[in-house]
Amino acid sequence: MTETASGPRGAASARGNGKAPMKPGQVVPAPGVSHEAKAPAKGGKGMTIQRIHTKPGVHPYDEVVWERRDVVMTNWRDGSVNFEQKGVEFPGFWSVNAANIVTTKYFRGAVGTPVREWSLKQLIDRIVKTYRKGGEDHGYFATPQDAEIFEHELAHALLHQMFAFNSPVWFNVGTKSPQQVSACFILSVDDSMDSILNWYREEGLIFKGGSGAGLNLSRIRSSKELLSSGGNASGPVSFMRGADASAGTIKSGGATRRAAKMVVLDVDHPDIEEFVQTKAREEDKIRALRDAGFDMDLGGKDITSVQYQNANNSVRVTDEFMHAVQNTERFGLRARQTGEVIETLDAKQLFRDIAKAAWECADPGLQYDDTINAWHTNPETGRITASNPCSEYLSLDNSSCNLASLNLMKFLREDDTFDTETFVKMVELVITAMDISISFADFPTPEIGQTTRDFRQLGIGYANLGALLMATGHAYDSEGGRAIAAAITSLMTGVAYRRSAELAGVVGPYNGFARNAKPHAAVMRKHADAADAYVPFEDFDKQILELSRTEWQRGNEIGAANGWRNAQASLLAPTGTIGFMMDVDTTGVEPDLALVKFKKLVGGGSMQIVNNTVPRALKRLGYQQEQIEAIVEYIGEQGHVVDAPGLKPEHYSVFDCAMGERSIAPMGHVRMMAAIQPFLSGAISKTVNMPEEASIEDVEEIYFEGWKLGLKALAIYRNNCKVGQPLQDAKGQKAAAAAAASVAAATAPAAATATGTSPAAATLYAQPVRKRLGKNRRGITSSFSVGGAEGYMTANSYTDGDLGEVFLKMSKQGSTLAGMMDAFSIAISVGLQYGVPLETYVAKFTNMRFEPAGMTDDPDVRMAQSIIDYIFRRLALDHLDFDTRAAYGIYTNEERQRQLETGSYLPDEDQQLDHETLAQSAPIEHRTEPAAPAKKTDPTTLPAPKSIGSSTELLEAKLGYAADAPLCLTCGTKMRPSGSCYVCEGCGSTSGCS
């Protein structure tokens, strides 16, 4: 939104003409000079920058051990190499995933040419030196020494993964490309064909640059209103079709992810009912086409025939409407031109229609208009009508916001206290850097550039909240967890606005401030009042909250004198790709996805690990080292904490995750959002996941509670509600079917020859053949005891050693239990003889839980969840090779003991062989020494099954069912949730948000 003389530019000019009182510290540009020209510091003095981590005379790079690595990315379709860069340089403590994603996503220059960046030093230097120059050019620093300290501290923070800028900064800053730093855009459209066509154009430019945008279509006349020519208007929904097609075309023309866009419509728009149903009805079409045999997966060749799939839809609801829902009243729909009510409807029925559509296809979400605008710092300029695609950035039309996220775990000390002093200094540093970037940034349209420079919206946020809560022994869905989140958020935003007020005293407040001085100050007081009113839960959050109150008070006092440099300061973004860059365990405000993760290794390959926060949390809760090791080992095998040995049931909730055996209830997510919302300038990118069995009434409750609890925006996702979500198991089934068909075709001629039938008939009637054991067979008979229940097992093998039959003896002959065990033995034996692999039975029957269960008399299987669980663990140990059973976490007692002592389940000679093989396979200049053995206190690590490529797929294997997440269109691995989007662990691609 660009203002005329009555707006921000006019306000700045009026101050220069003496028409408005000058605020202390304001800088007025000379007539005819852009406000982006170099501004002299107040009194000739800029900011004094304090050191946080660096030392005089020592560059932060010199305090880090660097190593060379090779980054190779393969194509998931055929295994071919689609990216390779050898000899890249990263600190030794950066994970393989972080290095891979930064190399492929953020290094600039053509691969294979001398201009290609190859070191993290080059990347960070490109950013921080540009920021330093921008600060020097615009009067931010008092002395050259302050500028150098700023550069070094910024480099240290990025190098040590303490925070990260949003992706456009890494893409563009310091390159020959336009210096675009913003990831979030809001556009506008008016009720004219020129404006609508310009909307298509501007969206296309933003999509081409890899970003997303949102806008409100409510100014466009409804299909129930007349045009000046006398005919009916098309209505906004019809124009959505054109924009959706444009977004899909631009996506398929170059990007490897779907376009990211948000479409908002006011609840009183006459076409609201049609808008609510758009995506739900298209979902019906997807189902019908899928059932008819069309490829309707995300990215499928036929999905493009379906409309409205490239946008998130939200209804902008008002307090008036929500009260009408509450009181079962009728609600008026208003003409766009005159504002008169042209139709009324049952508010409660419309609200149910919204909930039903969201239940069916996850759209539309809700944006709570009155709440949003009650916290708006610039109401004199215009209302907030829309958001970015993930709903965390809410501001004026034709504006943008650049983001940065802090890694909260970097501020948790070894003694589990929060380092508030360092956190405060880091927020000051990051806010200063973000504001400097607006001074040199480029923007996709002149209108967006003007509004952003006039209002200087920033979006500082954080990641790793879920990990911080677990590490300190707090459940995500608990009063203690919410109190910590609220206190940290309050401190972050309070410091950010205090630094903004200090910057205003050096380089002047934002140009739109004079006109909005009173409402801006009023919103600052609302934030401060929210901090004063929040009741702390314990000493941990009390100290943080008290400091935040001091920061709000200081900031408001400074702001009363100087004004503020930034109209907005904070929000909570999904932190997808940059989350991998920082090696965070949890993104944005999210809890942990699961307790067991998938980790790539430097020498190639991968393993599953129990989250590092788990043993730390157990120690915090008072468990001894032996207990911690046993619990962690159990989690590594089972994927959850239920019935973990020695773990108190009252501590289960600390380890609740977004998915898994104990997943956080939907309302737990809503309550967390409500706790932190009063302390954010913007909103929160988060989708409330609901189980598949959730009802429409459950969706209504979530949406209604979101309004009552003061949220600004809310969206839900019911598992498996969408058809166009390709699942790994579905793809696997297709591949398996194709493989089976291929095998059948190959064996058909042989079968035909043997039976005397035609190949076609042989293929059609092919049957499995039973391979019976010989009259004399080798076998092992062993006794066992599980939870006090005793029995015998006889396992007989073929001459080649493969298992062929199993006999189980428990209880007296003729008893029900004995009969069931006999029948079970026969079924398993016949299956084995018909070719069912033992591994299949092991995968299905291990971890089956029922009584009797508990301790066994087998040193290799110390605990069993049932007799069946024990039997198939024993069979796996006796008849499967190490690699196969290791994939299921099944080891002998000797192997477990060796792992505790040496960090490996393999004997010394096998370990040495593996290290030598890895070393010989690497180029000479890039060979590294074998990693040191893991300490005894390290979390359980298991080789990851070969078919697994991400944490989500690992979680599926642990849970036994498919997670509702799309496959990455770039590398094919299953993505994981990140705020309102999905992000790929394999290559860092996202499903929409930067």
Automatic annotation (TrEMBL):
<feature type="domain" description="Ribonucleotide reductase large subunit C-terminal">
    <location>
        <begin position="182"/>
        <end position="717"/>
    </location>
</feature>
<keyword id="KW-0237">DNA synthesis</keyword>
<feature type="compositionally biased region" description="Low complexity">
    <location>
        <begin position="1"/>
        <end position="18"/>
    </location>
</feature>
<dbReference type="Pfam" id="PF12637">
    <property type="entry name" value="TSCPD"/>
</dbReference>
<keyword id="KW-0846">Cobalamin</keyword>
<dbReference type="GO" id="GO:0000166">
    <property type="term" value="F:nucleotide binding"/>
</dbReference>
<comment type="similarity">
    <text>Belongs to the ribonucleoside diphosphate reductase class-2 family.</text>
</comment>
<dbReference type="GO" id="GO:0031419">
    <property type="term" value="F:cobalamin binding"/>
</dbReference>
<dbReference type="Pfam" id="PF08471">
    <property type="entry name" value="Ribonuc_red_2_N"/>
</dbReference>
<comment type="function">
    <text>Catalyzes the reduction of ribonucleotides to deoxyribonucleotides. May function to provide a pool of deoxyribonucleotide precursors for DNA repair during oxygen limitation and/or for immediate growth after restoration of oxygen.</text>
</comment>
<feature type="region of interest" description="Disordered">
    <location>
        <begin position="920"/>
        <end position="948"/>
    </location>
</feature>
<feature type="domain" description="Ribonucleotide reductase class II vitamin B12-dependent N-terminal">
    <location>
        <begin position="71"/>
        <end position="161"/>
    </location>
</feature>
<keyword id="KW-0547">Nucleotide-binding</keyword>
<feature type="domain" description="TSCPD">
    <location>
        <begin position="777"/>
        <end position="877"/>
    </location>
</feature>
<dbReference type="InterPro" id="IPR013344">
    <property type="entry name" value="RNR_NrdJ/NrdZ"/>
</dbReference>
<dbReference type="InterPro" id="IPR024434">
    <property type="entry name" value="TSCPD_dom"/>
</dbReference>
<feature type="region of interest" description="Disordered">
    <location>
        <begin position="1"/>
        <end position="47"/>
    </location>
</feature>
<dbReference type="InterPro" id="IPR050862">
    <property type="entry name" value="RdRp_reductase_class-2"/>
</dbReference>
<keyword id="KW-0170">Cobalt</keyword>
<dbReference type="InterPro" id="IPR013678">
    <property type="entry name" value="RNR_2_N"/>
</dbReference>
<dbReference type="GO" id="GO:0004748">
    <property type="term" value="F:ribonucleoside-diphosphate reductase activity, thioredoxin disulfide as acceptor"/>
</dbReference>
<dbReference type="GO" id="GO:0050897">
    <property type="term" value="F:cobalt ion binding"/>
</dbReference>
<dbReference type="InterPro" id="IPR000788">
    <property type="entry name" value="RNR_lg_C"/>
</dbReference>
<keyword id="KW-1015">Disulfide bond</keyword>
<keyword id="KW-0560">Oxidoreductase</keyword>
<dbReference type="GO" id="GO:0071897">
    <property type="term" value="P:DNA biosynthetic process"/>
</dbReference>
<dbReference type="Pfam" id="PF02867">
    <property type="entry name" value="Ribonuc_red_lgC"/>
</dbReference>
<protein>
    <recommendedName>
        <fullName>Vitamin B12-dependent ribonucleotide reductase</fullName>
        <ecNumber>1.17.4.1</ecNumber>
    </recommendedName>
</protein>
